[in-house]
Amino acid sequence: MDMMNLSGRAIISMLYCNEQETFEGAPVGEPLANASGQTLVEEEESKMKSGIDLIRRCGHISVSIALIATFIGLAQAQTRNAKKLADATKEAQKASDVFTEIMNVPDKAIPQSLLDKAEAIAVFPGVIKAGFIIGGRGGRGVISRRGRGGWSAPAFFNLGGGSVGLQIGASKTDFVLLFMNQDALGGLLKDKFEIGGEGSAAAGPVGRSASASTDAQLKAGILSYSRSKGLFAGLEIKGVVISADNDDNVAVYGKKAPEILSPTQRWTMSKMPAGVRIFPRTLARYSTRR
Predict the structure, then answer these.
(1) What value does the mean pLDDT take over residues 230-235?
(2) Per-residue pLDDT band at 289 (split at 50, 70, 90)
(3) Residue 179 CA neighbour count, 13 Å, CB half
(4) CB-based contacts of 118: which residues, under 8 Å, 6+ apart?
(5) Residue ranges of the alpha helices (H) in the chain?
(6) Backbone angles phi, psi at 48, to 5 degrees
(7) What percent of the chain shows pLDDT beyond 70?
(8) Are 142 and 222 in contact (CB under 8 A)?
(9) What percent of the chain has pLDDT over 90?
(10) Which of 117, 189, 122, 131 is nearest to 160 (CA)?
(11) CB of 140 closer than 8 Å to CB of 225
């Protein structure tokens, strides 16, 4: 409105700057009028008001469009996160089922003494050979780190690499990995971790006792196991790359894998989404340090 008043004053000043001038026979000192009977000042003010109203309407429309776009984006993000949480719940459940089935056969299970020494446990259920050959991604799984009195929330990881595909059949294979020391565990905090490259690995022993373990097994940072067609055994795997699935981790926890598995992160069940609690609870049922 200040702009309109300024322009109006300028026009009035121009019209009355010389009281002796006339225009098309108009009496001296009278404002000029248009065909509608409006003075030029009134006409100019009317146009400026219309322009200001138009600008305001356009501004309101722009704000409305921006708000609608924001709401749509938020809704889509919530939908994606809800789907990822549902998928994460399924992964945690499948990994829990695999570990329970393996440990429920004591004569063929992971020795308790080794399980109690493990700093972290990974379970990759239903890995298929075709996944490695075609896409370089054989399977998805979860990893929990041992904490004070229990286990961390499960972080989500992908299993990839070419050589393992040649070691497993066409049928689905379940993998269980025990990370036996801090060095092996530190590899998980990187973007990618290659078993047999950065981390020494060996086929883990099975049965009630680990007394028959070889030196290689005792010194290995990672002990690996597989189950295919009901047969559970130690399997040495090399060239396999474990990489964090941080799209899922961020969607579920708002954190990436290194934060989830960090020793400074204190997890309680109440801090985890309800759907993923099944995995750390399952691990705690078989191994807990006081």
Answers:
(1) 83
(2) confident
(3) 23
(4) 146, 178, 179, 180, 223, 287
(5) 2-16, 40-103, 112-117, 129-130, 182-187, 215-219, 246-253, 257-260, 278-286
(6) -65, -40
(7) 62
(8) no
(9) 35
(10) 131
(11) no
Alpha-carbon dihedral angle through residues 175, 241, 137, 151, given to the nearest 10 degrees: 50
Q: What residue type is assigned to position 24 of the chain? A: E
Residue 4, pLDDT score: 43
Which tokens go with 130? 């075709």
Please indicate whether residue 210 or residue 135 has the higher confidence score (pLDDT).
Answer: 210
Residue 279: burial class (beta carbons within 10 Å; 0-12, 13-18, 19+): buried
- Other CB atoms closer than 10 Å to residue 180's CB: what's the count? 24
At 198, phi and psi to the nearest 5? -75, -30
Q: DSSP states of 265-281 as a string?
A: ----GGGS-GGGTHHHH
From CA 196, how far away is CA 215, in angstroms rounded? 16
225: phi then psi, degrees, rounded to nearest 5: -135, 155
**Separation between Cα atoms, residue 58 and residue 66, nearest integer Å:** 12
Is the Cβ–Cβ distance between 249 and 260 less than 8 Å? yes
Backbone angles phi, psi at 86, to 5 degrees: -65, -45
Amino acid at 46: S
Alpha-carbon distance of 92 to 240, in angstroms, equals: 21
Question: Is the pTM above the cut of 0.90?
Answer: no
Which pLDDT value is given to residue 141? 95
DSSP 251-264: HHHSS-HHHHT-TT
Determine the residue type at 273: P
Phi, psi of 81 (to 5 degrees): -65, -35
Check pLDDT > 90 for residue 10.
no
Question: Would you say 123 and 174 are in contact if contact means Cβ atoms under 8 Å apart?
Answer: yes
